[in-house]
Write a structure and sequence with these properties.
Length: 141
C-alpha cells in the first residue's frame, strides 16, 4: 500500500485512513512524496549555505513514523523525483506492484482543475492498482 503526501495538511488527512486500511488488510505501508528536481536546483541556487537546505527525506520520514506509531510495525518511505507527480507516483506503483494507492484530493474544481490539473485524478486514471481518494473534512463540498 502506498500513501501519497505532498507536505500539505490536506494530504496528511489520508494518514489515519491509510493506517486503518493497513490494519484491516495486513498490508505493508510506504509513504511517498515527489520532489521536482528543477525546483530543488532553484532552491539550491538561492541558498548561500548548502547546509541550510532542508532534507528532502525528513518530511516523508516523519509521516511514516506517524503511521508506524499507530500501526505498531515498520513503515517505509520514499522520495520520488520527477516534474509530474502523478506520473512519478504511477511509475512507482507499477515498479513496486502496489496493491493500493491512497491519495487525498485538494478539492480543485472548474477552471482551477483545468489550469493546474489534479494529481489525484491523474493517479486514478493511470494507476495499475486500486486508488482510494479521500476528501478531508475541512474542504468545502
Amino acid at each position: 500500500m502506498v500513501v501519497c503526501v505532498d507536505g500539505s495538511s490536506t494530504a496528511e488527512a489520508a494518514l489515519p485512513i491509510a493506517t486503518s486500511w493497513a490494519i484491516a488488510l495486513h498490508d505493508p505501508v510506504e509513504v511517498v512524496i515527489v520532489a521536482d528536481p528543477e525546483a530543488q536546483q532553484e532552491m539550491a541556487r538561492s541558498v548561500t549555505n548548502a547546509g541550510d537546505l532542508p532534507s528532502e527525506s525528513g518530511y516523508p520520514h516523519r509521516m511514516a513514523r506517524r503511521i508506524e506509531a499507530d500501526l505498531g510495525r515498520p513503515v517505509n518511505y520514499e522520495v520520488l523525483h520527477g516534474k509530474h507527480p502523478g506520473r512519478a507516483i504511477v511509475d512507482h506503483l507499477e515498479s513496486e506492484q502496489a496493491s493500493l494507492a491512497i491519495v487525498s484530493t485538494h478539492g480543485a474544481t472548474g477552471l482551477d482543475r483545468v489550469l493546474i490539473g489534479s494529481v489525484a485524478m491523474d493517479i486514478v486514471h493511470r494507476s495499475p492498482c486500486p486508488v482510494l481518494v479521500t476528501r478531508p473534512p475541512h474542504l468545502p463540498r
